[in-house]
Design brief:
By secondary structure, this protein is of the alpha/beta class. It has twelve helices and 14 strands. The C terminus is likely disordered.
């Protein structure tokens, strides 16, 4: 039995809470994973995992062994990384999950540049508008919008998200233009609901540095960012969409910004990864590249957004953030 391999497999089973998910993330047959865990338990003469037909629980001995394995594997990664030839480019495979709208609008048009710069790194990009668990899904990192809620994760800010309140000219011609936040309650909106909870998103506005939320009503509800903007283009109501998605339509006149003096609260865009997992050279170069990508994008260059974000952050630094308009689909950052 390869004890190092067994330790890697055991930690992945614990992190994903599944033999099947661990096998998939490691590229191994499920039967092999099960056999190796049994061999490891036999070698150690302790039960590491308690298996039932419906649940997989870590035993007290398994929890202790897991914590030691994490440290040992991280030390090994550090040793190997320090001995790598600095002239060699990073190599390997990384799994990344990011919001569909961000991925299609910002990442995919430039992803060829990453492969030109790092030809030996294979990217597995998942475009998801649903909350994902980094550990259970075997992901190396994710890109999220909003405040970091999970203390077991590390977030590196790469940009700022700005929402914008918009409607089509047809809608405004038929129903009029709201002149105050309160007037929104007499208008029709498109409802956005969180897939995880089914709860509708309220419109939020920055009023003198404070976040003000307004419930809105609508006849159609969606949980997809692109469908949300499409509904506004069809004149179905007012929406509060991501600026980077609405900008081309604002420039063409297909959408019109309303309540311009009250912007939605800006939020950080971050690369997020588990703090107890070694940040590999491949993940590090991806994080560096995507930070440069967002920093150079005209879609996120707005001095006013940055200034308002910094003012709000300074004013409410000690306050806890509520659930945010996560990844332009309403999910929290983690």
């Amino acid at each position: 039995m390869d004890r190092l391999q067994a330790m890697k497999i055991f930690t992945r089973v614990v992190e994903t809470n599944s033999f099947t998910r661990a096998a998939d993330s490691l590229g191994l047959p499920r039967a092999n994973v099960s056999v190796i865990i049994q061999q490891l338990e036999t070698y150690l003469k302790v039960r590491l995992l308690q298996r039932t037909t419906r649940r997989l629980n870590v035993t007290p001995d398994g929890a202790i062994y897991y914590e030691r394995c994490v440290r040992v594997l991280a030390d090994i990664d550090d040793i190997e990384s320090s001995l790598e030839n600095r002239g060699m480019s990073p190599r390997g495979k990384i799994r990344v999950d990011l919001p569909s709208a961000l991925g299609r609008t910002v990442l995919m048009p430039r992803v060829h540049e990453f492969h030109t710069k790092y030809p030996d790194v294979d990217l597995m990009l998942g475009f998801s508008d649903k909350p994902v668990d980094l550990i259970q899904e075997g992901l190396d990192c994710v890109i999220r919008i909003g405040a970091l809620q999970d203390s077991s994760l590390v977030a590196r800010r790469i940009g700022l998200y700005q929402g914008v309140t918009v409607a089509s000219p047809q809608y405004l011609e038929q129903f009029g233009t709201p002149n105050s936040i309160e007037e929104l309650q007499t208008h029709t909106s498109v409802n956005y609901f969180w897939a995880r909870t089914g709860r509708f998103m309220e419109f939020t506005f920055d009023v003198d540095g404070n976040a003000v939320s307004i419930p809105v009503k609508g006849r159609i509800s969606v949980n997809d960012a692109e469908a949300y903007v499409a509904a506004a283009l069809e004149g179905l109501g007012i929406v509060q969409a991501a600026r980077f998605m609405a900008l081309p339509h604002l420039q063409s006149g297909a959408l019109v910004e309303v309540l311009e003096q009250w912007k939605p609260m800006p939020m950080p865009i971050s690369v997020v990864y588990p703090h107890n997992r070694h940040l590999s050279p491949t993940v590090r170069v991806f994080a560096d590249w995507v930070a440069e990508l967002f920093g150079a994008s005209d879609l996120f260059k707005d001095v006013d957004v940055r200034e308002r974000f910094l003012r709000h952050q300074a004013k409410h630094q000690s306050a806890e953030n509520a659930e945010t308009f996560g990844d332009a689909t309403g999910q929290p950052i983690a």
